[in-house]
Amino acid sequence: FVTGIFHLKVPETSHVGSAIGRIRAVDPDFGKNAEIEYNIVPGDGGNLFDITTDEYTQEGIIKLKKPLDFETKKAYTFKVEASNLYLDHRFHSVGPFKDTATVKINVLDMDEPPVFSKPMYTMEVYEDTPVGTIIGAVTAQDLDAGSSSVRYFMDWKNDVDSYFTIDATEGTIATNELLDRESTAQYNFSIIASKVSNPLLTSKVNVIINVLDVNEFPPEISVPYETSVCENAKPGQVIQTITAADKDLSPAGQRFSFKLSSEASNKPNFTVHDYRNNTAGIETRRNGYSRRQQELYFLPVVIEDSSYPVQSSTNTLTIRVCRCDSEGTIQSCNVEAIFLPVGLSTGALIAILLCIVILLVIVVLYVALRRQKKKDTLMTSKEDIRDNVIHYDDEGGGEEDTQAFDIGALRNPKVIEDNKIRRDIKPDTLRFTRHRPPAEDNTDIRDFINQRLQENDVDPSAPPYDSLATYAYEGNGSVAESLSSIDSLTTEADQDYDYLSDWGPRFKILADMFGEESYSPDKVT
Predict the structure, then answer these.
(1) What span, in angstroms and rounded, lies between the C-alpha atoms of 165 and 187?
(2) Residue range 101-119, pLDDT digits in tens
(3) Which helix (DSSP H) or strand (DSSP E) does residue 10 occupy?
(4) pLDDT tens readout for residues 81-103
(5) Is 192 helix (H, G, I), strand (E, B) or coil?
(6) In 3-state terms, what secondary structure has residue 427?
(7) Which tops the pLDDT comparison, 276 or 401?
(8) 21, 222, 420, 496: which is deepest, by most CB within 10 A?
(9) Peptide bond into 130 cis (omega under 30)
(10) Which structural domains are found in the chain, ordered by start?
């Protein structure tokens, strides 16, 4: 070696595997005899440093095997031995062909980022934990000589990180929203720590939070079962094996229990046998079942879990009674099972059903034809009644002439051909004479009207439509006597209008008009 001691200064932030210095031993030989091999003598630096030979310059290159930390150790001292790689046996007696030198390394203090106490943090929290609950904390320190305070903050990457918050000074992590185990079972995010004196120096650590399940949901039957029992079943036969499922994440070792509900325990039909392995069997309790008496049975089964708090639910199994052979093989569970003992086959049942359908169709068609035929009696054979217009050329007798035409022709045009009788001419036949007994002076007006009403109801010559008959019957005893034309004299000639002359000059002309046949307007002055 040119010198016996080598001094090196290495920053504590140097990367592992990097070259931190070189040393050189001088060999006056040439060729292979000049090649040098360097080795670190076991001691202080054997674990932290390594040395190799540069084949071009024959220098020893010192490399870093582990990271340095100024706060842990500030200096290292170790020895390096240099020797010929190839030895000529002719010169063994001359002496050892090697030399030793001391290497001193001073570690330089550098401004480093904070260091977390753990490489990764794992925390747990129950779902539905109130917002603001602290669930854990992270810790980072500045290991430099001039220790600086540390600040913490979340490494925001997605919306999931918003479920938690961290205290910038203390590093405590708290819930920011309600958590749901069934929605998200685990959260994974990062926390960053930075030095207050140099915010650019940061370090990051990963945090995993597992959401623990709270027993919220009761267990239920895992799948809908189609359970059946043979009519010739014996007591103690297992007709169905059931299992349960829970919407909660069942912890390891969770067990479900099965039992009948209290109201079903007293019925001698079926029972539940809990196998204590999260399954149960439905067993018969009676000797034979009759489908004619009861086709379906509803069995309420109570299922409980073993979590806290205990949750339970009642599930109803539907059990259908079926016809089976002697070996217990189900032959039929449908409606055919009821008729088979009578001797009817499937083909016979289908034929019967077809006959019933055909009969129903015939009845419907018959009823429809009857209705159509009844409707045709009010219509012409070729045209709809709405296309017929009945026209009359003769004049009626005014508003009170209800016999001028037959409105029944508007309802049935056949009347025109079948009945040619005019309504405005009194027929000699087909008309019955009304016998109207004279009303007595003291006859009550109600009896009078009822009498006239009955006469019209039984009169075959009355109009075939709704009509209004007005009767103005006037009783006796009026001081002013009757002013109505009813029961008056037949002709105007029989009237006596002489009393009009007694009413004064104003009524003299009126009296002359009604009282004298020789009245002439030319005489009026």
Answers:
(1) 13
(2) 999 999 988 888 899 999 9
(3) strand 5-11
(4) 888 877 766 666 666 678 889 99
(5) strand
(6) coil
(7) 276
(8) 21
(9) no
(10) 5-108 (2.60.40.60), 115-212 (2.60.40.60), 220-332 (2.60.40.60)
